[in-house]
Hints:
The structure is a single chain. The protein is an alpha/beta fold. 44% of the residues lie in helices and 18% in strands. The protein has helices at 6-18, 22-34, 40-44, 50-57, 80-83, 93-101, 107-119, 142-150, and strands at residues 2-4, 62-68, 73-75, 126-130, 135-140, 155-161. A six-stranded mixed sheet has the order 1-2-6-4-5-3. Strand 4 (126-130) and strand 5 form a beta hairpin. The longest helix is centred in the first third of the chain and has 13 residues, at 6-18. The protein starts with a strand and ends in an 8-residue tail after the last strand.
Amino acid sequence: MKRIKSRLVGATFIAREISKNPKEFRQNLKKILKAPQKEWCKIGKCEEYQWSFDDLFLGRVRWYETKIKPDSDIVNLIFDHLLNIKRSHKKTIMGLIEDYKKNKLKKKDKDIINKIRKNLKINPRVIALTTDKKTIAIYDGWHTAMAFILENKKIPAYLGIEDSFKCYR
């Protein structure tokens, strides 16, 4: 794992939120990194969860660039509203994979996963969190994580490690 600055991870999160495609993501990432960090949530329209943004990207979290094994213990412990899957809270990614295979996911979500599976682009990376380095919670990028798992490939991720997170529910 390679240690990285939280500023890059925070900017990646905001750029993911406002970008529709990889080219737009790269452009937005450059724009965000040039802006003062206190304005990022306004740019990304994420003021409603500014508290969690601050906890993760302005707090004590140690961030690493890594690849997560597809058979890792990946769960959705946080941020139902970000995942847009109300029934997935506390479900493992493997449970969501099962839903995908049984056509129980929304068509929109399945289409996004299928599109990612076609080219498996690394950027933007998945943003994940862990307190014990064993169980990993997806903060942002669950479609990407699922696409890589379905192709049995390691998931390119920014992994935040901390003893506890205020944003865990």
